[in-house]
Design brief:
With about 260 residues, the protein is α/β, with parallel strands linked by helices. About 50% of the residues lie in helices and about 15% in strands. The strands form two sheets. It has a six-stranded mixed sheet with strand order 1-2-3-5-7-10, with helices on both faces. β2, α1 and β3 form a beta-alpha-beta unit. The protein binds coenzyme A.
């Protein structure tokens, strides 16, 4: 069904694997389109409670946008490339109501780190290397990197990483708060699945509302506290809330209907 990605659904988890290892999983136009479709499909799939995004092979998560595709672009084409990519993929991932965990299994550079940063949180293998090397190509990050990197690691560290076009290792990324956990490559997907399992025990409706409220903290012109109040109130009308509170009072585990 897809040329550049693999998808697998198992036990409530949809794993999306970017599969262009000979190009270090670089994001070409077709891959971005396929990822858009796969994320949308997983979000609409009732059986999918958590999405894991990773890269195939042992070397790269994603080594960036595909440089060969935009090397001869004009000013207008460059602007359109960033706008379309953000709309089709990066903003879609960030705003999905299904939780997205990025399992960073190697290089996450440029658009690769931007994709990982669009996910709701990140874990990494100990060989991972992360950076936004765009200025070394005469361009800047265009898939949200200048916005999400300072949000995650602070302005000074983001400025340094962007200006030097450098790479940080997994341990540094963990220290910066860019990734939450670092494990060996063999342990990476099992850890992502373990975290997904913990998430799945909870109300998917409440989790979707929580994602919306947390994201509101970073949206211009939106009062996150107001969003939180609205989303909090809405929870009281859900079957999940009824089940969660009833189960607690009855001293049993909840069986959330996801509605
Ligand atoms: N776009 C297109 N192709 C890419 C790519 C990208 N972002 N990153 C890697 N590739 C391709 C290489 O061109 C090479 O293809 P080839 O075998 O047909 O020549 C293949 O992937 C393997 O990469 P290679 O550079 O040989 O691997 P390496 O181990 O020597 O170096 C990197 C790894 C990640 C350091 C290096 O590939 C790199 O710097 N990539 C670009 C990173 C970047 O600037 N990303 C931001 C883009 S905006």
């Amino acid at each position: 069904m897809y040329t550049n990605i693999l998808t697998a659904q198992n036990n409530g988890i949809t794993t999306i694997t970017i599969n262009r290892p000979s190009k270090l999983n670089a994001l070409n136009k077709e891959t971005i389109q396929e990822l858009h479709q796969a994320f949308k499909a997983a979000d609409e799939d009732q059986a999918t409670k958590v999405i894991i995004i990773t890269g195939s092979g042992e070397k790269a998560f994603v080594a960036g946008a595909d440089i060969s595709e935009f090397a001869d672009f004009s000013v207008e084409q460059g602007g359109a490339l960033a706008a379309n990519g953000q709309e089709l993929l990066f903003d879609v991932v960030a705003n999905l109501s299904t939780p997205v965990i990025a399992a960073v299994n190697g290089f996450a550079l440029g658009g690769g780190l931007e994709l990982a940063m669009a996910a709701h949180f990140r874990i990494a293998s100990d060989n991972a290397k992360m950076g936004l090397p765009e200025v070394s190509l005469g361009v800047i990050p265009g898939y949200g990197g200048t916005q999400r990197l300072p949000q995650l690691i602070g302005k000074g560290r983001a400025m340094e990483l962007v200006m030097t076009a450098g790479m940080i290792d997994a341990a540094t990324a963990e220290r910066y708060g860019l990734v939450n956990h670092v494990v060996t490559q063999e342990e990476l997907i099992p850890l992502a699945e373990k975290l997904a399992g913990k998430i799945m025990r909870n109300s998917s409706v409440a989790i979707g509302a929580a994602i919306k409220a947390v994201n509101a903290c970073y949206e211009d012109g939106v009062n996150g506290f107001t969003t939180e109040i609205e989303e909090f109130g809405k929870c009281f009308g859900t079957a999940d809330f009824k089940e969660g509170t009833t189960a607690f009072l009855e001293k049993r585990k909840p069986a959330f209907p996801g509605k």
